[in-house]
Amino acid sequence: MKVSYNLLKSFVSFDLGPKELASIFTSIGIETSVVSNTCNWTNVVTAKILDIQKHPEADKLSLCKVSDGAKEFSIVCGAKNISVGQVVPLAKIGALLPDNFQIKKSKIRGIESEGMLCSKKELGLAEESESIYILDDKIKLGVTLEDVLDDVDSVLEIEIATNRGDVLSYLGLAREIGAKLKKIVTYPKTTTYKVSGLNCVQIKSSSCVRYIGGIISGIKVGESPEWIKDALEKSGIRSINNIVDITNYVMLELGQPLHTFDLKKLSSKNVVVRAANESEKIIALDGKEYELSSDMLVIADDNHPIAIAGVMGGQYSGIGKSTETVFLESAVFDSVSVRKTSKKLNLASDSSYRFEKGVSWDIAEVAFWRAVNLISDIAGGKIEAREDLQNIKYEKTSIVLRVERVFKVLGYKISKDEIIEILRYLGMDLQSKGEVILCTVPSWRNDIKEEVDLIEEIVRIKGYDTIPLQKKQAVCLSTSSDSFIGKTVEDFRVKLNGLGFSEALNCSFCEIIELEKFGLKYLYKIINPVSKENEVLRPSLLPGLYKNLVLNISQGLESVTLFEYGKNFNELGERKAFALIAYARVWQEWWKWAEQKINPKYDFYFGGGIIKNILPQDFMITQNLTPKEYYHVGKTASVMHKGKVVGQFGILSPYITEGIKDEVFYCEIDLSSTEKDQNFEVTQYKTFSKLPLVKRDISVIADKTLPFVKIEKVIKNIMKLGGILKDYSLFSVYTDEAKIGEGKIGYSFRLSYKDENKTLTDTEVNKDMHYLLEKLDLDLQVKVRE
Amino acid sequence: MNNNIEEIVKEAILQIKVADLKTVENIKIKYLGKNGTLTQILKSLSNFSAEDRKNIGSKANSAKSVIENEIESRKETLRKTLLEEKMQKEKLDYSSDFYFPFSKGSFHPIMQTIQDICSIFKSLGFSVAQGHEIETQWYNFEALNIPKSHPARDVQDTFYLEGTEELLRTHTSPGQIHVMESQKPPVRVIVPGRVYRNEASDATHFSTFHQIEGLAVDEDITFVDLKAALSDFIHEFFGYGIDIRFRPSHFQFTEPSAEVDVQCVFCNGKGCRVCKNSGWIELLGCGMVHPNVLKAVSYDSEKYTGYAFGLGVERITMFKYGIDDIRLFYENDLRFLKQF
Fold this sequence. Notes:
The structure holds 2 protein chains of 2 kinds. Chain A has 6 domains: 2-37 and 155-181, Phenylalanyl-tRNA Synthetase, Chain B, domain 1, CATH 3.30.56.10; 42-152, CATH 2.40.50.140; 201-390, 3-Layer(bba) Sandwich (Phenylalanyl-tRNA Synthetase, Chain B, domain 3), CATH 3.50.40; 398-466, Phenylalanyl-tRNA Synthetase, Chain B, domain 1, CATH 3.30.56; 487-674, Bira Bifunctional Protein, Domain 2 (BirA Bifunctional Protein, domain 2), CATH 3.30.930.10; 694-784, Alpha-Beta Plaits (2-Layer Sandwich). Chain A has 21 helices and 38 strands. In chain A, a hairpin with a 5-residue loop joins strand 16 and strand 17 (289-291). In chain A, helix 4 runs antiparallel to helix 11 (416-425) and helix 5 packs across helix 6 (242-254). Chain B is of the alpha+beta class. Chain B contains 12 helices and 9 strands. Chain B has helices spanning 2-18, 21-32, 37-43, 50-89, 109-123, 137-140, 174-182, 223-238, 291-296, 313-321, 328-331, 334-337; strands at residues 127-128, 134-135, 167-168, 187-196, 208-218, 244-251, 254-263, 280-289, 305-312. In chain B, the strands form 2 sheets. Chain B has a 7-stranded mixed β-sheet, sandwiched between helices. Chain B has a two-stranded antiparallel sheet with strand order 2-3. The chains are: A alpha+beta, B alpha+beta. Chains A and B meet through helix 7, helix 10, helix 12, helix 13 and strand 26 of A and helix 5, strand 1, strand 4, helix 8 and strand 6 of B.
């Protein structure tokens, strides 16, 4: 909401500049900034119009001669409201107007203009204005504009907390400043009249709790006086006519939205507040037709709805030039009902904005009389009849405040006297009884419901800056060793980081059609997605990481390595998952590698090597019996944890990666099933012999169909016997069938032997090695390569 | 003879001083070898009187060790020179291409911020708990004092799931409820995690983002403690020079509520586009736990008080690194990721 600094001053006296005022508001929870400070110009002076001629080349422009008392200027002007003899603001050549608009010597349609006559908008004095700002014609000429304007004003932009509808008015803001500065607020004067009742109004819905209606006759619709127009303009409200402007002005002043109908345009004398009929239609004041539903509230005559209650009036009952008798409404509607209606119709107004936040029971009546008074003063009307229908028995909220509780919540001492003073300035009725204060909350503060709300009020007005910065933090340890990421993942992240992987984060949503490409099924579908691409929750991290891969390849990157930790939503529910994707060159490009023709790419073995390297001890790699559809069936394996398959890795199926040059390696592990007893599993130290290892190399030839893991198992079994064979590694694989025989594959192992107690002899080592070779031959028909 | 020995030493030293690695060995043979000059003298000692023998013997022996030392030190010098020369020859250009096979890895800035914040709060005595991203209405709203009629319940802001009453949590605050249900006070916990809002995406909004929730409940926790803990955290995270302000605000699940602003890091509080000329940047929301929230988990709201806070990880990360578009976090362009 935008408000005028000067107008606010008329409700409560204060000695603060606009900026200081804004910062005081902010400090009590009403975020405020100065949006326009009036004097945002230089070199603008008062000048008198001496002559006006039509521009020879343009119908809509005129040529003016103006004088600043010393010199005459020729000005080209487009406004229609000027006439000879008027005193107006003249921006001379070189003048600087708001938004850094510099006035330069220029030709407009062939005729030179030596400056510009300004409107309020051009001077930053109003939001909207098309006409030139006409000054008092008794003003001296040639003086700088800021010196002759006593209405130099600032506009403040106010942002309120969602529960503080009570400050959406000058009165509300004045009350807040009054409470903070301990000043009394001046209410606008109202005169009430005793008039006869109106027996034609009826409330037929519980969404309307109070309805004050009145008939004012003998009015003359016309233009509003300048001071009303000015106030509306500063708040960004368009001036329409004196009647509508008065209702808007009172709303700005007191926070109560009002509405007027042209009584003659109603089809009956009766006015009913009722639920709308299903599919009932109304053309609102914005000229658009709205279809209503039965959960909405309308004001209606016998035949039609004449207003959407609290939101907007209907066009056909609107005030026009010929209106003589108006029906004035000041009502209290249920805030939830107005909010829902406004949302459903996608129609918001200054009125609905205030009703949504809640209006005051008491102010509804004050505002009614204020509007009656202003209409009578300005448009000459007279109140004929009035009705005040109350649908509930309204009672103010009473709360017991314990002084000791204030200390318990805030942690610092505020005296009872000070508490009483603060609450009193906030408009509370107080009764003090010992250490307890009984507070009656004013009707405009419907956000205050219980004791703790009062405690907030006390500290809010006293100022959060008065809370001492005291540390009484006791020594305490966190009670668990949990972390956001977990030990296993932290380990993965650190290791992969060292191997050049980057951590990615993808959004949790994806599109069904995208999942189908990977053979994935979703479990959770969003009822109200932001877009079709975000219709389901991801069952796997693959779609996101694959998308990232494609993006980075398209950006010209030749190798991509990414990992991600996040939630999956699949048939097991909400699961923690970790995944990595690796593509193309393992090492960075370097001339030395090129020289030596070394340039490994991520394939099944290299990727598998990374997985093997990053997995903690209690994980194992095994055969993949049920590979996911997105893997290459021949290049995949699974990851086991304590006898349970928890993940899979491999090369992505060529169906998916068609069009991508190299193979794509992917691995995904479900961490939710590995989580238990992960903490505090500390590896135990094993003693080791300081004697040197004896190394032997062996080469063997096997059938290609024999899984490598079986050969490994024979070696491992021998190691398990606790003999001198301690370790092995595969250092070469031959696939040249021409040399080793068709259907064969060759492996070379390096074996490490050691005795914990003595240096080994050749004979001992040879004996053990032969045992291994015999075993391989016997069990698997794996022969020594000659 | 004595003079003769001195002469020999002098002569030998002169030769050693200019010898290279080969000639130095020859010199050694010439003086100290089997038939070397000094060896000869020592062999001929029997020809002398007992007194002379003793005299000449000791002189010859000390001359021998002088020459030996001289030779060793010459050899040492020559070896050093040789290595120096070798290193000079092998000199490489430091400005040339250093090489590491793997490119630089990186951690996602969001994850880094979460970890940084968690470790600060752990040092303040907080535990870390994890919540669920799929939540019930009760945990996400009712238990947090957000009744059915509240605007925050409008379908527009919350993602609902088909075929279930559940929803995607709109904040990490349900984590408070889960923690309090599972334990008795004292509670000191933070809950980091992913949250969802149905918002059109732009430079500062995205439907997926992260929050960190904090909660402390005990018999004597007050607003003063809240201010102290959050001031400590902010100073630890942004540096001790930064200005902080607490300002009243409104949240359903806290009362009194506050928002915490820090001095704008882009203009040092002078006012700029980012802080909309106010000099302040809104950092987090906090307040004293609303009694209704304590009641929802059957805590005695008379006996216990507590504070809670919630902060947006993306927002804080954007300020920290000067990132101007939230969507960059979820594109995973390596040219972005590798900067962290």
